Every structure is written in structure tokens, then in C-alpha cells.
Amino acid sequence: MTMKPNLIGGQWLDGERASRNINPSDTRDLVGEYAQASRSQTEAAIAAASAAFPAWSLSTPQQRFDILDAAGSEILARRNELGDLLAREEGKTLPEAIGEVVRAGNIFKFFAGEALRPGGETMPSVRPGVGVEVTREAIGVVGLITPWNFPIAIPAWKIAPALAHGNCVVFKPADLVPGSAWALAEILHRAGVPAGVFNLVMGRGSEVGQVLLDDARIAGISFTGSTATGARVAQACVARGARYQLEMGGKNPFVVLDDADLGVAVNCAINSGFFSTGQRCTASSRVIVTEGIHDRFVAAMAERMATLKVDDARLAGTDIGPVVDERQLAQDLEYIAIGQAEGARLVAGGQALPSSGAGAPGHYLRPALFADTTAAMRINREEIFGPVVSVMRARNYDEALALANDTPFGLASGIATTSLKHATHFKRQAQAGMVMVNLPTAGVDYHVPFGGRKASSHGPREQGRHAAEFYTTVKTAYTQA
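RE: above sequence
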């Protein structure tokens, strides 16, 4: 099998070694082999980006629009092909994977438009005859480090605004899922990105990622991943005065009140907790249910879970695909054992499955639902990042809100209710960056800001017009008439 190379300074370059991309739905299936960049190759990518920055930062809005728009158009035209690749390498179901590809294409289209809308202000000075201009300029070379759970959408929402605002990019995708990242790099290369403006360096975080953190030529790092790694990113950036944007963990709550529509509540909880195999930072792994509806809700959840099909991600009718790899599966099973040891009642699921319905070996797990849990349990404190949901009982709305906010994280929060009073109060009082009422906590539209508070996020928001806050710096200029 031919090794897929890195893209450095406009050239496709092999690495000294390759990583093997394995299909979690069928571990006999090798998706591809992808070059691992060395330290010297990563430094070469940074040098190429630095050399390309002066011209690219002064490129016309039309040039940037044309490239980003062409990339978005190709992504959308190839949605089925790219969705199949994504499902094959990451394990989310094919409909979810195609939806993620469509989102990536729309993100590029949106930021193509943003390239034509740089904005700015012109105003008179308080001094006679003096004019003031306030503009935004690119910050320089940015290092983008992305996770494995959204292998095309998250790279898109970092790369597209970086390029739209005139920055040059060194992109390090997650080592576990390089296929979608490589396909995206190839699309951008074909769309006409000048040499050095966009660079792909695949490889280990301890090697490639560390170079990005340490190199003074990197003006900013945008990172999505674990809380522990995010802390190291922040420390490295602070030490040398670089910008940083961090999207990290979540332990998101979903509140169900007595007045909720039971069907809506169950659908939201199933989607929020189990879709994408629970492997998303916006997943609601804590469901807080008031007493009047608690027992009916738990019974309805168990009944609905019995209908969910766990199988090959690319098979029609699959509701839940495999866990991404054996390490994540082991972590999920460990937390299920911890929950049982802590006294939580396992209502449904939680068993590993050795194979798909067709007998292919894979990393399968039946979604797990716990009841009779307390806020102090580890399964309610720590991010599991798998299809494991625990239910807590609350006496009333006030206690439910307090339990929802009782977490060091603050990414997403949701509520099911037919009460306008409670919905309005919850939107204001939920300590989260994103709040959903009668909807799953499954992320946000591509044109609005994404991010959280507390230990979930640091730095400016991603996506939408707010992305300019990270990728640009403000300049104030005076002119004497």
C-alpha cells in the first residue's frame, strides 16, 4: 500500500515511518498508511509557512474567496465518498459521517464569504483634521492541532478562518484518523493554495505537536483535545507569548423536568448521550431528572435503547458504530465497572461485543445507562468519552439546576421542558457556553460561535464571525489631513 505523504511547502513528502489507519468496525481492514513527519520536517513546514506569510497576508479577498469556495464545493460534491472514508476510519455511522462532511463544506463556503467581509471602522479623531481607522490583520503562522472524534469538521473550522483572515497554517491532525485530514489537504492543494500557505504534518503529538508548541515562529496555537494536553499547550504558549485557543473536555448535563414531553426528552437524551458513540465533547453524559417523571423516563430510555442497533458504521440501519479503538473501549469498560463498584444501578447495556453483526472483529460496546447515581460518583465527575450515560434524581428545578452546574466543565447544557419560565431561567443560569432547550446537546450550526467556559474552553470562540478574534489582531491607524 502506498504511503500517503505530508504536504510541506507545496510538496508531497514521505516520512521515515508510517502509521497504520485501522477500521474500528473491522480491525482486519487497513484504511491506509500515512507518513509520520519528523522534527526536521515539521520545522521545514514552519519555515515554509513563515516564508509564505508576507505575500498571503496581503493577498486579495477575491483570491482567498476563490480558494476556500472551491475547496468547499469539492467537499460537498464528494460528500458520500468522504463520508464513507470518515465512517471507515473513525467509526461514526455513515449518515453522521456524511453530515459531518457537509458541515465541513459549508464551513469553507461560509469563511470564503468572510474573506470578502473583513470589516473595519473609520471614525473622526477628537482632534480636528485627524482621521482614525481600525482594521484587523492576520497574526502570522498558526499551528492547528485537532482530535480524532470529528476528523474533518474540526479541522475545517480551524483551517478555513485561518486562511480566510490571511494566516498561514501548519496543521497536525490526530494520529489515529489521518485519512480525512489528508483528503482535506489534497482538496486545498488542488484548490490552489500557494506553496507554504497550508502545510500538513501528520505524526505524534510528542514529536510534531511539541515542535509547534516550542517554535517562536508560531504566533498562535488552536487546540482541541484533552484537558491535560490543553493545559500543557497553554503553558507553552504563555511561556513564549503566543496566542492559544483551547477546546477541551466536557461533562455536560441534560435536565428533564416533570412538565417535559417524554418523547422529546428521551430522543434528546439518546442523541446527546449515545450518538457518535458518545465520543463528542458536547455529549450529555449526566441526565438530571425531577422526581415526577424520573421513573417513567428511565423506563422509556431502557425501552428505546433496546431498539438501538450496534453494528458496522457503514451498514445501513446502524444506530451506534464502534468505539474508535481498543484503548477507548478499555476506558469505557473501566468506567462502567467503576460505576457499578460505586453503587450505581446498570439499567441497560454496558457489554462489549466481540464483532459486528456480520462477524467482523471490531471495538463494539452496547450503550450503557446508569440510574440511582449521585453527583459525587466518578462517572458523574470525569469525562468518559463513550456511550455511557448516568441518571441523577432531583427534587425540583432548583436542585436540577444546581446539579447541572456542579461540574468543573462548562461546554454545553440542555433542558427538556414545556415551561417558558424554566427554559428562560435555565438559558441564563446554566454555566455553559452553549445551551439547548428541547434539543440534543450535539453542537451548533456552522455559522455561530462554538465554545464553553470553566475548564472546557480558553480563548476566543471558534466558528462564525467570532473566529476573527483569534486569527486576527486589531490595528488602530491615524492620518493627519
